[in-house]
Fold this protein.
Amino acid sequence: MASNIAEDSNGRLYVVHRGRHPLVRFDPSGRFLDSLADEHLTQSVNLDISKNPPTPIGTEFWLHGLHVDPSDSIWITDLGRHLVMKFDTHGRLLMTLGTDGEPGDDESHFNQPTAVVVGPSGSIYVADGYGNSRIVKFSEDGEFLLSWGRRGAAAGELNTPHGLALDADENVYVAERLNHRVQIFDSAGRHLALWPNLTRADSVLVDRHGVVFVGTGHAENAIHRFDRDGHALGMLGSGTNAFGYPHGIHIDREGNLYVADPVAGQASASPAKFGALPDA
């Protein structure tokens, strides 16, 4: 059950999933290379916090978010353990944010963090996602800087911030699953824009051209394409059964689109290039 996909500067692809060896690496042709950080990635019990009281879902490797930063450090989020972890390309643990096994809503705790990205400044942004509906910002060294957002539907409020992306100006794009939209903030958490009517927006990506891709779920299961002003540029997948569920998306240096699709149970690559994506 693939959750997310990312790429390093050498074109190697990384995938997180819920089976054994939950962080794996492939070469640019898709050939399996190895697994990483097995000794640091352990199973845990995750809770369905939509229930009252929260009920156990099961014991698995609950890796969810994945990001490879410009220095090729690999970042993951772990829902069940309430952690964000940073690894080098050898699988050595470099940093841990959060408190293992302890959910919370403060400077040293998360509650089921969904996504992590690192900006050009080195700042670390975490979508603290299922439990807290907030964005948390840390310094390059892991020092807490600020957080913003609370559960709600008004502009600036969040409901299940599930995916994160940054543009070249380090504006923060948040895909909100249960508010069915993308919101955009500056790096200090000031609200800039809101793009509505994106059914179960789960994943978001800004490519090197500044084009914004948004993966949507439920019955739509599509990938939308926008310019930075929110003008629609096209859609891929809706009504074609192309995706089971575009939970994680990635565009490689050649413009190929990759989709981590937990319903299909694999990470899949589209043959379409950036310039060839069909118009809506």
About this structure: Residues 269-280 have pLDDT under 50 and may be disordered. The radius of gyration is 17 Å.
